[in-house]
Amino acid sequence: MKNSRLWRYQFIISSVFLAVFSAITFNPRISLTEENEPHWGYGGAANPTQWGELSEEFQSCELGRNQSPVDVSIVEEAEPIEIEFDYQPSKAQVIDNGHTIEALYEPGNFLRVDKEVFELIQFHFHTPSEHGVENRTSAMELHLVHRNEAGKLAVVGVLMDPGEENSVIASIWDAIPKNTEATQGNSITINIADLLPDDRTFITYDGSLTIPPCTEEVRWKLFLEPIELSLEQIENFESIHPYNARPLQPLNGRIIEIHEGN
Question: pTM for this structure?
Fold first, then answer.
């Protein structure tokens, strides 16, 4: 395999993945944000540069060597891998966890990578995008969080840029609880496959959660083609969460591989 500049593949925007989970029942699924964890955020004294100081459980945020997100600039051509997105129309519970809009998915949707099977647990959003492609960011980023039976995590990232209105995003936004104190979300039925790009070319690397506790050994798969949503839809999200993106983290010698899509 040889190093090659990402622009040689003529892809302009990236995508992303990250997260962690427990529990296998739907109503409710486990949220990324635990109720009793120390307060953290994206500004003030609890901003990302301070996460590692907030709790011993958050030390990976400061000391970890394989952190996410990263900028995708130099990649290596990789051997083909078998990847299948076995998604179908399913119920999801839309909540505002205080850090992002999150949808907790019912069981039955899977990511298959070679012979490994990961179940989709939840998805959530960041603005602006957390990952970059040659130092370019997108308006938003979608993270699809999966877990296998051994507890290993795989996150699929999808960049989101301004364009046409997105009907799937519209249904998710319509389900956002109006009461910020609500403990139960609103249920919708969607097929998350409708939020994947047409070009399935993606990069892979070993990273971490992009939120505390910044757990490592997360397998990232990041699509290089963005999907579209309208500027109004972006602004609607920003009116609730104006900024919820962790800064880029150093690669520290990690290899980013590119895989041609179908």
Answer: 0.86
